[in-house]
Amino acid sequence: MTRPTLHLALGPPEHGVVRCARELAAATANPVISDIEQVPLDAPIHVHFTDRLFGRTATEAADAFVDFARRHRAPVTVTVHDVPQPSDGHAFEVRTDCYRRVIDCAAAVVVSSMHERLLLEDVMDLQHDVRVIPLPIGRTAPPLEDRVASRRVVGVLGFVYPGKGHEEVLGAMTSLDSDVDFLSIGSASPGHESMIGELACTADQLDRSFVSTGFVPDDELDEVLRSVAVPVAFHRHVSASGSINSWIAAGRRPLVPRGRYVEEMEANSPGALWIHENSVEGLATAMAEALRHPDRTWQKDDVVTYPTLGQAAALYRALFDEQRVKTADRLPDGRWVVPGNRWDLAETVDRDPRVSVVIPYFRQQRQLELVLGALTLQSYPACRLQVIVADDGSPEAPAVDGFRSALDITVVRQPDLGFRAAAARNLGASVADGEILCFLDADTVPEPRYIAESVRLLASLPDALAVGRRRHADLTGRAAEDVAGWFGGESAAPPELTEPQWLRDGYRRSRDLLDADRRSYRYIISAVMSCSRELFSEIGGFDETFVGYGGEDWDFAHRAYDAGAVLAHLPHAVAWHDGPEWAERTGGDRERKNLEALMLSSRITDPAARTHGLVYAVPEIVVVVDSTGHSSASLLVTVGSVLHETDCAVWIAGPDAAQLRQRWGDIDPRVHLGRPGDAGRSHIVVHVRGFVLFGEQALRRMLAIGADRLTVDVGGIGSVELRSSRSNARAARWAGALGREHQDVAESLFGHVHRTGLEFGISPGEQQPNLAW
């Protein structure tokens, strides 16, 4: 059973942060703890933090949080409220240091707006997972029939403290009729109780009625908010506002000053706010207009606000799920399926599967004899080995009879039609009867434990693609009979040559590919590569159109990764290549490398391989746009925004898709009707629903977070779902064997990230956008 994520909320129940914490905890079905000393140290915990509740000073608050986080043994995630900003004045620097210390201790950080995230980026070097989950907007109250407020009152909601805007609102009211009253809805913030009297005194001097309600219980708040004529929220330095949301939830359209946060709210909930110029004069003008047109201070029936409490809770639940430790699944035959690329979670299986060693060969008799001699010395049982020499058209067949007494050897041959290592490896694999395929080049000599080290992982992890360690030596003059002395230490080892530093660095940085990503295909070297025969067949083997040196292993590994293979480097599976690496042998033949790059770029959907703006048959990104509810204009705007991304193809599916597109009059070859067929060689498939607008780099930003399965809310009217080919393929491979649904397997192995559109530059569109110029 999944353990709940506890919510820690310190402070009085009426405080906005505490209220928010309790509301979200209930919506996510998680308990709330209000005493930091009562938190179980091994329970996942989510903390709603503001320095004003954690200590008397910002430094004291940071000390308390850091001490707690260091003692805690489970993931600590945190929502930071009241993010520091320059308007804090002299407290800004100490508050910034406080929040920096808190963020450094958290496994993941939530802020309530993109505005807050940008504020944090302005003042600290964020190397953390900071995501945006907007404050939820409660269910909008049913509209009043006449939508006329019962009192000519300007209302300001929220705690009273300097900067909240009460004084400015009073000043702006000087231009209004004297019978318009001022209602302060809420109590004074602790330490600022005297402000209530000061505001009353100022109002009296202005011959204006002023009333403070004090704290208003939840069950009475909507009635109060619906009774005032002019709902106002004039806190110009707001970074996230529960009071604005409360106005909206009461069915009101509050007057708010233009600013980054307000524009963000308008993007999420179009039409929910009355936005005016960010000045006292602008507020005065808007209030006078609101008194003349009271209907404009009420929400229209067609306004869709975002997020609801349920939508915010879904974002939090996804965050908590991301923090949970993923585990491997045991298959009925005792082998394992692992999450992500976590090959280290596959437990060793005590068995010795049959292994077919495939050796591509061309006129390398002496070197082949070294390899065959080394295979006779393997610690792996000889009766479980099959050796296949795949001759790439040598004038004479390789001589292997001298090794048949010790090895089960098969020789297969193909005509000499150029350097066709890919085809030779496929030919060898076609006659293999082993469960495991170990590919060795004819000039690459395996150490005695090479096969055993390769098979140990592959025997328990059927969709692993493993690469051994290829070292280099000058084997000039060495014969097969010398190998035993070399490996046994009875004779001198050959001169060792430089091992490619780029390979060693790649394996080190990725912890032997445990942290593999979509560019790790570059570290799979076919000279020392192993995989199961079933995976090799499923992927389709090597691409035989590769003729000439190099490239076929990168192509194979790239396809394998997108097909859900688990990449692993096995540093103890060592084989010695006779001579230096190719670049050192040739001095870096640019023409040859260019030919290889040209072959790869049409096949590999790595942006680094595609920098020239061309359109390829296999796009990196496949986007399926649902035409449901669209007009021809809105569909054009959505599809056009997708095509800001060059390496992308779009399919339009849904009602009237053909008719809607026909009105465009285009002939764009990147746009298709219907649904894509096999998109498995593309990196991701993206499904778009609703009126969605992608910014210039929106799709690229989505890919940059590295999620295999991602859902993006676009306001309250659209969604974007990203699914990697990798996660789809692995789930399809094992769902049946595990007896579970495809989606369940995919999300248990790869997780499911849930984010908001504004984080990526994705915004809501309109059913009838303006196409005029």
How would you explain this protein's 3D organization?
- It is elongated, with a radius of gyration of 33 Å.
- The protein contains 26 helices and 31 strands.
- The chain starts with 5 loop residues before the first strand and ends in a 9-residue tail after the last strand.
- Helix content is 33%, strand content 19%.
- It has an eight-stranded mixed sheet with strand order 17-16-15-18-21-20-22-19. A seven-stranded mixed sheet has the order 25-24-23-26-29-28-30. Strands 2-1-3-4-5-6 form a six-stranded parallel sheet, with helices on both faces.
- With 773 residues, it is of the alpha/beta class.
- The model has no long low-confidence stretch (mean pLDDT 93).
- It folds into four domains: 6-132, 3-Layer(aba) Sandwich (Rossmann fold), CATH 3.40.50; 153-306, 3-Layer(aba) Sandwich (Rossmann fold); 343-588, Spore Coat Polysaccharide Biosynthesis Protein SpsA, Chain A, CATH 3.90.550.10; 621-764, Spore Coat Polysaccharide Biosynthesis Protein SpsA, Chain A, CATH 3.90.550.
- The longest helix has 15 residues, at 309-323.
- Pathway: Cell wall biogenesis; cell wall polysaccharide biosynthesis.
- This is Glycosyltransferase.
- Pfam families: Glyco_transf_7C, Glycos_transf_2.
List strands and helices in order, with pairings:
Layout: E1 6-8, H1 16-27, E2 32-33, E3 45-49, H2 51-54, H3 58-71, E4 76-80, H4 92-104, E5 108-111, H5 114-123, E6 130-132, E7 153-157, H6 166-172, E8 181-185, H7 194-205, E9 210-212, H8 218-227, E10 230-232, H9 242-249, E11 255-257, H10 260-268, E12 274-276, H11 280-292, H12 309-323, E13 329-330, E14 336-337, E15 355-361, H13 365-375, E16 385-391, E17 409-413, H14 421-430, E18 436-440, E19 444-446, H15 450-458, E20 464-473, H16 483-488, H17 501-509, E21 528-532, H18 533-539, H19 552-562, E22 566-578, H20 582-586, H21 590-601, E23 621-626, H22 632-642, E24 648-653, H23 657-662, E25 671-673, E26 684-690, E27 692-694, H24 698-704, E28 709-714, E29 718-724, H25 725-738, H26 742-750, E30 753-756, E31 762-764
Parallel strand pairs: 1-2, 1-3, 3-4, 4-5, 5-6, 7-8, 7-10, 8-9, 11-12, 15-16, 15-18, 16-17, 20-22, 23-24, 23-26, 24-25, 28-30
Antiparallel strand pairs: 13-14, 18-21, 19-22, 20-21, 26-29, 27-31, 28-29
Helix pairs in contact: 1-12, 3-4, 6-11, 25-26
Domain Galactosyltransferase C-terminal: 519-572
Keywords: Glycosyltransferase, Transferase
Pathway: Cell wall biogenesis; cell wall polysaccharide biosynthesis
